[in-house]
Each structure stands twice: as structure tokens, then as C-alpha cells.
């Protein structure tokens, strides 16, 4: 690494980690998800600390749009810290899957925010030797973490009561490793937008993208609730 913008590669690691957590949760492999989260928590917390202590002092944001300002970045950081406190226990499968969907959306959004103004601009102002020191700190903070150790015998957690409503049932099934494209296609929706979301969810599942299918059903659910 020689450029601050390369730190976006670390973001990709966070996104991948969160992806593994979401898949493990849907497979009801809660100990695997917990092991991954035990890595992500300190990794992302340290990353945020590094950005605010080592990078913020270099960032002149007076002429960048408000959504690229230090304030906006710090606001994302506080929300990310809150999401990191997500409890894998004590929530039903739909609530937990929704929490993780929102978390993943914020990580993507934050990545976008930092890649547009924050990091390109830092590369213009931070001298090379200072950059090297800063990047070494970031690398060391990740290298210091113990690797993820998922248990080999992670038996799927019990599922609990299933909801009666057909859309909630579909989301529940997807969130617990079940569901089928046919089940989604059979959902009784009438609005054009709802039909589009439903069919896109079914297509995602058809292609094996369970997370994208879940996210579309979540949007469909929000849409349907707005309708009633
Ligand atoms: Fe970052
Ligand atoms: Fe950040």
C-alpha cells in the first residue's frame, strides 16, 4: 500500500466479513456468525479510530459537498459503531436479518462516501513518508487481530415459531435458510412496484443470491406496509 485510497481494500474486507456473517445467520450457524463478528468488531472499531485520529487532521473539507464532510463521515462512524453492537441472540430471524441488511447498506454507503472525496483528497495533501507511517498503523491494527476461528461443529440453531402472513413467512423462510422462488412468485401483490420487487426477489433466489432476494422482500414488506 502506498496510497490512502488503497485503504478502500480494507473496506472490501469489512464488506466480505459482513457478507459471511449474514450468510451464517441465514444458515442458523450462529457460532460461526459470532466468530466472524468477533473479528469485525475490533477491526472496524480500530479502523474508525485510525481515520478520526490520523486522517481527519489532514482533511480540509470546507469546499466539499456536505455529504463528503468530516461531520458526515463521523456521523456514519457513530452509526457503524452502533450496528457493531448487533446482538445475534434475542431477536427473531426477520429482525436480525433486517438489522444486518441495514448494517451492510451503511457499510456500502460509507465506502462510497469515503471513496469520492475523503481519501482522494488525503492522497493529494499527505506527504509520502507520513502516508507510509499512517498506512503501516492501519495494517498493524488489522494484523494484530486473532484470525477468525469458526467452530467446526456449529449445529444450526432452532428456528422457532413461523409467522402466518405469507410475506412474513417468505422472509422468515429465507432468513432461516429455506424458501423457494416459487414460494416468492406466489405472493399475492398487485401494485406494479410490488410485483417488480417480488419478481426480482424470486430471480435473485433462482440465481442463488439469497441475500439480495431477502433484501428485495424486505423492501417489498416496507412498500406493502406503506400501502395499508
Ligand atoms: Fe474507512
Ligand atoms: Fe470511515
Q: What's this, in brief?
A:
This protein is mostly helical and 228 residues long. The protein is built from nine helices and no strands. It starts with 7 loop residues before the first helix and ends with a helix.
Characterization of the model:
Helix content is 69%, strand content 0%. The protein is mainly alpha-helical and 228 residues long. The mean pLDDT is 93.
Task: Please provide the count of β strands.
Answer: 0
Specify the number of helices.
Answer: 9
Described by the principal axes of the CA atoms, the overall outline is globular
Strand content: under 5%
* Portion in helices: 55-70%
In angstroms, what separates the terminal alpha carbons?
A: 52 Å
Listing every helix as H and every strand as E from the N terminus to the C terminus, the arrangement reads: HHHHHHHHH
Radius of gyration: 20 Å
Judged by helices, strands and strand pairing, the structural class is: mainly alpha
The number of distinct structural domains comes to 2
Uncertain stretches: none
Amino acid at each position: 500500500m502506498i496510497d490512502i485510497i488503497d485503504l478502500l481494500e480494507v473496506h472490501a474486507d469489512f464488506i466480505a466479513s459482513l457478507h459471511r456473517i449474514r450468510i451464517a445467520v441465514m444458515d442458523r450457524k450462529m457460532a460461526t456468525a459470532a466468530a466472524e463478528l468477533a473479528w469485525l468488531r475490533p477491526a472496524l472499531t480500530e479502523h474508525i479510530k485510525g481515520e478520526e485520529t490520523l486522517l481527519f487532521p489532514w482533511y480540509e473539507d470546507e469546499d466539499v459537498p456536505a455529504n463528503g464532510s468530516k461531520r458526515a463521515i463521523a456521523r456514519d462512524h457513530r452509526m457503524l459503531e452502533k450496528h457493531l453492537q448487533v446482538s445475534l441472540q434475542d431477536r427473531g430471524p426477520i429482525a436480525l436479518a433486517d438489522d444486518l441488511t441495514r448494517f451492510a447498506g451503511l457499510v456500502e454507503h460509507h465506502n462510497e462516501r469515503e471513496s469520492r472525496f475523503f481519501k482522494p483528497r488525503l492522497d493529494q495533501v499527505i506527504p509520502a513518508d507520513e502516508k507510509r507511517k499512517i498506512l503501516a498503523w492501519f495494517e498493524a491494527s488489522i494484523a494484530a487481530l486473532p484470525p477468525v476461528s469458526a467452530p467446526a461443529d456449529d449445529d444450526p440453531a432452532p428456528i422457532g415459531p413461523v409467522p402466518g402472513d405469507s410475506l412474513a413467512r417468505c422472509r422468515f423462510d429465507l432468513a432461516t435458510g429455506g424458501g423457494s422462488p416459487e414460494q416468492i412468485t406466489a405472493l399475492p401483490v398487485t401494485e406494479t412496484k410490488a410485483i417488480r420487487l417480488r419478481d426480482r426477489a424470486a430471480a435473485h433466489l433462482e440465481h442463488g443470491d439469497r441475500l439480495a432476494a431477502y433484501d428485495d422482500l424486505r423492501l417489498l414488506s416496507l412498500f406493502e406496509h406503506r400501502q395499508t
